[in-house]
Amino acid sequence: MAISRAQLVKELEPGLNALFGLEYKQYGEQWAEIFDTETSDRAFEEEVMLAGFANASVKPEGQGVQFDQAQETFTARYTNETVALAFAITEEAIEDNLYDRLASRYTKALARSMASTKNIKGAAVLNNAFDSTFAGGDGKELCATDHPTIFGTVKNELSTAADLSETSIEQALIDINAFTDERGLKIAARGMKLIIPSDLQFTAQRIMNSDNRVGTADNDINAIKSMGMIPQGYVVNNYLTDTDAFYILTDVPNGMKMFTRAPLTTAMEGDFDTGNVRYKARERYSFGFSDPRGLFGSPGV
Length: 301
Description:
By secondary structure, the chain is α+β, with helices and mostly antiparallel strands. The protein has helices at residues 91-95, 99-127, 166-177, 201-209, 223-226; strands at 36-39, 44-51, 71-79, 81-89, 147-148, 153-154, 191-196, 234-236, 246-250, 256-270, 277-289, 295-298.
């Protein structure tokens, strides 16, 4: 439905002092703190996990060397979605000198809605991280204690769910250091960034930036800070819905990814039948994950 004079009757009356409701500050591209961005030129993108070789074995004297076989293990698929929003201004509203004000005001509102949608879709990957109905290429949710591999399993979730604390972060970092590849070889993984909902920002500040341990009478140092264990600190994502879940982004490549199929574009056109002017914003992208080792999480308790 087009924006008409009936919806904006006050703007046609003298004595109007102010219009408000569309000038709120908004959060920036918080999704960019989590995902590596790549471009796409097709309807969907696929990434394949490869398994290398197991550890070498001792070759007994006079016997043949043991052969191993490389293989593919699973495929992660990103399906690009089109996100679009539009509005129209009636011919009569344009004639009554509302066009300039409406076009400027609501094109900004259009951009604001598109940006908000992108943050929501990016955060949804983490909001569904513990939900088995949102499975990745290996058939498991993003954060699980039993991601299947050729060798066994890998966990990127605390064995016992815990709230954000010094102890839970330390255990998460220990578990990240224990990551293995698809054949059970240890990999040098490291936690890089803590991602939290706004409800945990004060807890995170105390844990990450206190010189001494938090909440104890001891004079022990804060090992997380002094060892530089999470070098990129913490970031707040205001679009996370679980108030006690937390996540640690790791340096494992090909983890959290966002593909841009078509960047944000806007268009304007007149409608011959009605005389209305229509505005549209459109972009196409996908959020997801390939290697679950790119993130470690806890749903809280």
